[in-house]
C-alpha cells in the first residue's frame, strides 16, 4: 500500500512497473525500508519482551 501511495504522490500510479526508472525503484526501496524501521521500532517499544529478535535486527 505504501508503494501505491508513493507512486500516486509522484503521479506515476498509472505507469507499468517496467516504465519506472532506477531512481524511482531505489526511492521505493528506501521508503519501504524506512517504513519497516519506523513500524518495527514502534512495535518493539510497545512490547519489548515479545520482539527481542526484531530489536536485535534493528539495533544491528
Query: What Rg, in angstroms, do the CA atoms define?
Result: 15 Å
> Could you say which overall geometry the principal axes of the C-alpha atoms support?
elongated
- Helix and strand content put the structural class at mainly alpha
- How is the quaternary structure best described? single chain
Q: Could you say how many structural domains there are in total? A: 1
Largest sheet, described in full?
Answer: none
Task: Tell me the span between the first and last alpha carbons.
Answer: 27 Å
Overall average pLDDT: 84
TL;DR?
The chain is an all-alpha fold. The protein is built from 3 helices and no strands. It has helices at 2-9, 22-46, 52-59.
Topology, element by element:
Elements: H1 2-9, H2 22-46, H3 52-59
Helix pairs in contact: 1-2, 2-3
Task: Explain the overall architecture.
The protein is mainly α and 60 residues long. The protein has one domain. It is built from three helices and no strands. The longest helix is centred in the middle third of the chain and has 25 residues.
Amino acid at each position: 500500500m505504501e508503494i501505491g501511495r508513493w507512486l500516486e504522490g509522484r503521479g506515476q500510479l498509472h505507469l507499468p512497473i517496467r516504465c519506472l526508472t532506477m531512481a524511482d525503484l531505489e526511492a521505493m526501496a528506501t521508503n519501504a525500508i524506512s517504513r519497516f524501521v519506523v513500524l518495527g521500532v514502534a512495535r518493539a517499544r510497545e512490547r519489548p519482551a515479545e520482539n527481542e529478535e526484531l530489536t536485535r535486527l534493528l539495533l544491528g
